[in-house]
Amino acid sequence: MSTLFLRTLRDDPADAEVPSHKLLVRAGYVRRAAPGVYSWLPLGLRVLKAVEQVVREEMDAIGAQEILLPALLPRDPYETTGRWTEYGDGLFRLVDRKGADMLLGPTHEELFAQLVKGEYSSYKDLPVILYQVQTKYRDEERPRAGILRGREFVMKDAYSFDLDDDGLKAAYDAHREAYQKIFRRLDVRYVIVAATSGAMGGSASEEFLAESEVGEDTFVRCLESGYAANVEAVITPAPDPIPFDGLPEATAYDTPNATTIEALVQWANATLEGTYGGQDTLKTMVLRVRQPGGVWELTGIGVPGDREVDMKRLEASLEPAEVEVLPEDGFAAYPFLVKGYIGPKSLVENGVRFLVDPRVVDGTSWIAGADEPNKHYVGLVAGRDFTADGTIEAAEVRDGDPSPDGKGPLVSAKGIEIGHIFQLGQKYTNAFEVDVLGESGKPVRLTMGSYGIGVSRLVAVIAEQCHDEKGLRWPRSVAPFAVHLVIANKDGAAIDGAHRLAEDLDAAGLSVLLDDRKASPGVKFKDAELLGMPVVVVVGRGYANGTIEIRDRFTGEATEVAVDVAVSAVTAAARA
Amino acid sequence: MSTLFLRTLRDDPADAEVPSHKLLVRAGYVRRAAPGVYSWLPLGLRVLKAVEQVVREEMDAIGAQEILLPALLPRDPYETTGRWTEYGDGLFRLVDRKGADMLLGPTHEELFAQLVKGEYSSYKDLPVILYQVQTKYRDEERPRAGILRGREFVMKDAYSFDLDDDGLKAAYDAHREAYQKIFRRLDVRYVIVAATSGAMGGSASEEFLAESEVGEDTFVRCLESGYAANVEAVITPAPDPIPFDGLPEATAYDTPNATTIEALVQWANATLEGTYGGQDTLKTMVLRVRQPGGVWELTGIGVPGDREVDMKRLEASLEPAEVEVLPEDGFAAYPFLVKGYIGPKSLVENGVRFLVDPRVVDGTSWIAGADEPNKHYVGLVAGRDFTADGTIEAAEVRDGDPSPDGKGPLVSAKGIEIGHIFQLGQKYTNAFEVDVLGESGKPVRLTMGSYGIGVSRLVAVIAEQCHDEKGLRWPRSVAPFAVHLVIANKDGAAIDGAHRLAEDLDAAGLSVLLDDRKASPGVKFKDAELLGMPVVVVVGRGYANGTIEIRDRFTGEATEVAVDVAVSAVTAAARA
């Protein structure tokens, strides 16, 4: 440590909000070079490399082959798939000296699809899984929390290519298991949640979320069944339909100024009783939706009035279409839209696609707009008075909502995305016509999966989950050094003994960080706690009596052992 | 090999000119993704990682500490040192979503200087050597030869920080030795040449050039003394001055239309004899020179007329100033410049800085322009008829020129730059005011060295130096696999035996590439030669008689050995 390029800081950096960011900077693991762009100092780089190594070993174990593609990429392939545009401001774009458009790779589906197309030509070549550990670039709108969400970051991205869906499923399952092993080895607490596929395209997809208060992803789970899903992926269980027999007819009421759900509920509570008492409101919202390459079209949605529309869920449901709420000045073009009093009837009658929350099953009765100023229907029955074109997951998910598997209530929690596995299908192989000659002699279009792990992010996630109030606490699998050996005795014999012990531990295969600085024991202990090696060995006062101390950074437990068994005792502690 | 992501190609790629480029593509080591931008396939990546590993080990051995800085960098520090502008089109620049200017790092002096300034504050912290193995970016005007000169490439860059020149010298020497070890371990034939410092600034500097016909760097060396230098760095030995006594007076001659050196020489040969016979011409050239941040100023140079001006040497001599030959339309502003007849006298008399080749010593007589149309002086004597402001290395260097050390003639050769070591001095520490508190209590400005190795380029250099007409031939230190085991026998027992041998070799610590493909022995042997593992083991016809064959890819030698001693024999061959 007397020569290590390391300065620990007493104070938290001004721009840091989350514990991992504060500690990784204070302990001298990383330094900020620009917003969302970080330098890795010696200790940080050792953790990063250790995480990479675990990831590599488990990827190799499933037969994945490591390659390395460039980060600086031509525009063309991303133009072919539309992502040059879709990524919007999130893509770092540049122009080279010849005027060619280029980009910094945010993820590499295009390049891998092209590569496999270029190399492979026969069904005999398949299946194949390729991966890389690479620096990636995304121009995040709000880079935050240090290396937790950076603009330059290290990712492991893997891509599988198969002849059919069974092959894709097998590759997907192999990655799922490999990821579980990786995160277990890294001591990360995580959940696997059903996910939507975002801009990646494709169908089946799951996210690995590290449980964390500072996470930006909200997920829900059912503690009874273990079901877990990204909020965007929650499927609302539909109740059984209700027979129409005996349901009262819909009646139009005067509802002056009841242009909001709150006002309407107030009116209903004050006015309705008997047959119509206790009916729920149906909130109708009008959207503009545009399929890729298409034109803007109207779509109406109906959700129970006591729920907010969750725009992220709504957008995920309609993907890859773009969505926006019909703006104020958009109403003029549709005279049948009476703002504040829009109901299902006129939408359906005027040919507007109308999608409802899965809870709006046939036979449910609703208070809904009557498409005239100051009028609402009461007792408007789904399936009888209006028929929707389908259902949509647009309503907010709440704690206590029933789990889709019917086994209990959902509770929500926060997480940090650390892994993502996708069955992409043929989105990219179609774009680049990635075919091989099949067994039958006819061309077969390949099907593709993509699988990512946030390698540099994991360093922050582990710091986030493992720290305590004194500093970092690294799991043995990724600690920069296995042992932190503190010389806390000014006696020459003790100092010599500590150096000898460091050499012996090194010879025994343990990496040792030796604190040989001219500093007080107090300063050294504080730094040892901040830096967070799992095992701290102290050569202190006891050395004169032939003992050293072994401290466990996780439990805080301290054990005195005799100097002559120090190597085996420390080795045992370090490998525990 | 039946599952390896590898397709060898029969034909050379259309854009490849040099052997390493052709072979690395044909053998499936790399693939082009964009001009000057390459993907590393499994075998190529293994070589790249092996080179990285050798570099890391020798850097660690001199106490250098590995860190990792970002490739995506803010403009500010490069603005501070002027390199944001100096790099011209060679720099990849981009603008982020917030409108901030950024760049892709071509080299990192600025960032390392800033980093050390941020962490260190006392003389006790010094010295320190930091390094990284990182992807770098330069928008080369002519990316060429595959990974030999790419726009995205892997470099090891190291930076030393010291309190004084002695420290810098020690760090420089440590790097010089480490580089020698690295290149020896990689089996690279190289020379160390004195170099100019280019855009990097600073003083003492040497280049490590791999000897190669396809190199872009020309260097000269003296075979007698071992002296070697980049052409830009060659210092011309000055002859002894000649006493003026007895030298005839300068005489102006009519030299109609002798506006070129050729015409002038022709005229002199036809006209001059006796006293003035055999005089050499002096070529005068007028330049515009601009110091950084300054204005354009006239400079004249004079070189012996039988030598061309070497613009690279000229520019290196005047660095960091910009230089251009005075353009046609620039003469009008200086009536004393008579185009075709410019001589030293009017330049000196009109206050133009005038620099001469070191051979133009006092007492040498020249035929030179007389500053009037169709007139030249003959017998114009340096030091008597004109006095230059100094010397300049601007004339071409030729094979046969005397070595600066006086020990013999120079011969020229081509090389590829693989390493570069610089004593930068305080250029960057001045720019960022990198001071620490000195032992005396006063601030000390640090002095800095920078040291680079072209890691990905070395893969091409090794391929360039080691291939033969059949394919690649990797030195044992960087071969993707130690052993290439070819199954050239369809018999079940032989196939099983080959698999067992592969496992045993693996257990013995050798990496094995097993060719288990359903292909003919001929195809397999050809691929083995193309791929270039140093040791090829063939399980072929001899297996029935209890023998296998071991082939040395370098010597071509084949040895039959008994199956029961195969592991030890192959191990010995692989470790030879």
TrEMBL record, chains A, B:
Residues 31-475 form the Aminoacyl-transfer RNA synthetases class-II family profile domain. GO terms for molecular function: aminoacyl-tRNA deacylase activity; ATP binding; proline-tRNA ligase activity. It is found in: Cytoplasm. The keyword Membrane does not apply. PROSITE patterns: AA_TRNA_LIGASE_II. It comes from the Bacteria. GO terms for cellular component: cytosol. It catalyses: tRNA(Pro) + L-proline + ATP = L-prolyl-tRNA(Pro) + AMP + diphosphate. Gene3D superfamilies: Anticodon-binding domain, Bira Bifunctional Protein, Domain 2, YbaK/aminoacyl-tRNA synthetase-associated domain. InterPro entries: aa-tRNA-synt_IIb, aa-tRNA-synth_II, aa-tRNA-synth_II/BPL/LPL, Anticodon-bd, Anticodon-bd_dom_sf, Pro-tRNA-ligase_IIa, Pro-tRNA-synth_IIa_bac-type, Pro-tRNA-Synthase_IIa_type1. It holds the Pfam family HGTP_anticodon. The keyword Protein biosynthesis applies. Its EC number is 6.1.1.15. Keywords: Aminoacyl-tRNA synthetase, ATP-binding, Cytoplasm, Ligase, Nucleotide-binding, Protein biosynthesis. SUPFAM superfamilies: Class II aaRS ABD-related, Class II aaRS and biotin synthetases, YbaK/ProRS associated domain. CDD domains: ProRS_anticodon_short (cd00861), ProRS_core_prok (cd00779). GO terms for biological process: prolyl-tRNA aminoacylation. Catalyzes the attachment of proline to tRNA(Pro) in a two-step reaction: proline is first activated by ATP to form Pro-AMP and then transferred to the acceptor end of tRNA(Pro). As ProRS can inadvertently accommodate and process non-cognate amino acids such as alanine and cysteine, to avoid such errors it has two additional distinct editing activities against alanine. One activity is designated as 'pretransfer' editing and involves the tRNA(Pro)-independent hydrolysis of activated Ala-AMP. Homodimer. Consists of three domains: the N-terminal catalytic domain, the editing domain and the C-terminal anticodon-binding domain. This is Proline--tRNA ligase. The gene is proS.
